[in-house]
Amino acid sequence: MGFFTDTSVCIGCKACEVACKEWNAIPEDGMELTGMSYDNTVGLGASTWRHVAFIEQRKPVSVGPDTDVLGISPQGAVTPGREEGELRWLMASDVCKHCTHAACLDVCPTGSLFRTEFGTVVVQEDICNGCGYCIPACPYGVIDQRKGDGRAWKCTLCYDRIGDGLEPACAKACPTDSIQYGPLDELRERAAARVETLHDAGVQEARLYGADPGDGVGGAGAFFLLLDEPEVYGLPPDPVVTTRDLPSMWRHAAVAAAGLLGATALACLTGRRR
Predict the structure, then answer these.
(1) CA distances from 103 to 121, 158, 187 (A)
(2) DSSP 22-68
(3) How many CA within 13 A on the CB side of residue 195?
(4) Full-prediction pTM beyond 0.85?
(5) Residue 198: in which H helix or E strand, if any?
(6) 90-125: pLDDT as tens digits
């Protein structure tokens, strides 16, 4: 089970953020003016399990102390000299990707992070010891430690709700079906059809992100339809599971240890003969 987030129909209402906080009883994380458009949460964190990004791809006209605001108003909120409508917002609701190959699981020493029967990745807060190993292991920078708490927190894909046959709170609250929940194979087919529809409509930039099971994390349990490059949304273009080299490292370490033991044994035998 997983998420398909179609950013082409996201209206930036933030109902997903609110529903996530309410259902999971997540504490507030400040209401500061960030200066990043309507984005007041900046990114995912220990107390922000859903984050709606607002990306402005054209800067609105700058207003200085001598600017005649009424005089430029017919131009709209666009850069002078450019046609109206060039400014656009890209809005996208980000979340934990629930990777098929999740490095956070590999490095957790207590078993606090585990794979559920739905294929999702969940943190058990009563077992987490706050070591923080999972934080640098996440290729998306999703997991975070809460100040004053020290434990790791992230999206659970509403494990308690889906266990009762309900859809996650964010998907339930989304008024445009930008966030869809269901079996991954079904969601991938639906997403591919949506991309084809957008291409036929002339939106050639439409693309899927995280839907390929052959990518560096084995496919994400939460994937996206984007309207620009992943970097524009603050997403890594080619994420890889950060623990992919661990097996080979252990093999090399074992070979080195065996060689050292062999050399030591040989030296002991040689010394006795002398």
Answers:
(1) 11, 21, 24
(2) HHHTPPP------SBTTBSS-S-BTTBSSEEEEEESSPPPP--TT--
(3) 19
(4) no
(5) helix 184-200
(6) 999 999 999 999 999 999 999 999 999 999 999 998
